[in-house]
Write a structure and sequence with these properties.
Layout lengths: L2 H26 L5 H26 L8 H29 L4 H8 L2 H9 L8 H18 L8 H23 L5 H23 L4 H6 L1 H22 L5 H9 L1 H13 L5 H18 L7
Helix pairs in contact: 1-4, 1-10, 1-11, 1-12, 2-3, 2-8, 2-10, 3-7, 3-8, 4-7, 4-12, 5-7, 6-13, 11-13
């Protein structure tokens, strides 16, 4: 098996893990509050990455910070990324409690369109395909979320807000990732997210051993597989595949979320919602296609 095919298969597995993690979040919400879920999940994600860092260091894939300035940049970036991740994750968890897994997957994936739109304020050019994607996404969101009484469900609204939060998180990562090792940055961000969500957990929730036992498997899947394993697969796989192909494969996360919600939780979408999901997915794909440069 050549390295490009292996990388693509690893990214497909990454999308599958991320998509099915929405089911884990939905099931876990029946036992623990959103702050508790994100706190424990983030702790597990950080712990899983510690041995990964050791192995990748030995393989020469990661790079240790060499100077005090490098260490400061890594720590600052990890804390900033972790704060953004904590907000986005908690809002998403609150939304998943109140909507279907499939809808949550497609609405969350809108960050692929929101990021370049935010880039407009930073004077970054947005291509025609992105604008077409935005138009398709708006129609898709209408079909996916707006009811006959022209209202949007509270859960759908929370997940839409989460998509904006994840867009900010991506832009923060985009700022710091060229300056620091990606796996170390992610490890620090998970522990930062755990501390922030843990503070709010103690203030607003009363986690119990019984609840944690009930949510043990969903939290473990979300923390170990989605945060630790999937992220590592992404980092390793993207070294051997085309960035455009990589982003398209990872966008299948929304499709896997829909299928997982249907198969595992019996959460089927209506014909109208399915049409909306299809339009959103087409918009996501369009936004990732490379545009021809003028000669």
């Amino acid at each position: 098996m050549n390295s490009r095919l292996r990388g693509n298969l690893m990214l497909l597995l990454t999308a599958f893990i991320w998509g099915t993690a929405f089911v884990a979040q939905s099931v876990g919400a029946d036992f623990v509050g959103p702050f508790t879920f994100i706190c424990v999940r983030s702790i597990l994600g950080g712990l899983v990455l510690l041995p990964v860092i050791f192995v990748l260091d030995k393989a020469g894939i990661t790079q240790k910070p060499q100077t005090r300035a490098d260490k400061k940049t890594l720590l600052t970036g990890g804390i900033c990324c972790g704060a953004a991740l904590a907000i986005a994750s908690v809002v998403q968890q609150m939304g998943v409690e109140r909507t279907t897994v499939g809808k949550a997957g497609f609405i969350t994936a809108l960050y692929i369109l929101i990021v370049p739109m935010i880039g407009l304020f930073l004077k970054k050019k947005v291509g025609k395909l992105v604008w077409i994607g935005v138009g398709l996404a708006l129609v898709g969101m209408y079909l996916l979320c707006i009811t006959e009484s022209f209202t949007i469900g509270f859960g759908d609204l929370l997940v839409l807000i989460c998509s904006f939060c994840y867009s900010i998180h991506i832009m923060v990562i985009d700022h710091f990732s060229p300056k620091a090792d990606g796996v170390r940055l992610s490890c620090i961000q998970f522990f930062t997210a755990a501390v922030i969500s843990g503070i709010f957990m103690l203030l607003f929730e009363t986690p119990s051993l019984e609840g944690l036992r009930g949510a043990a498997f969903p939290i473990a899947y979300a923390g170990i597989m989605s945060s630790g394993v999937a992220y590592t697969l992404q980092v390793v796989a993207q070294k051997d595949t085309d960035p455009t192909v990589a982003s398209m494969l990872m966008s299948l996360e929304s499709v896997f979320a829909l299928l997982a919600g249907w198969v595992l939780l019996n959460q089927a979408l209506s014909v109208k919602e399915m049409c909306g999901a299809l339009l959103v997915f087409c918009a996501i794909i369009l936004a990732q296609l490379p545009e021809k440069k003028k000669a």
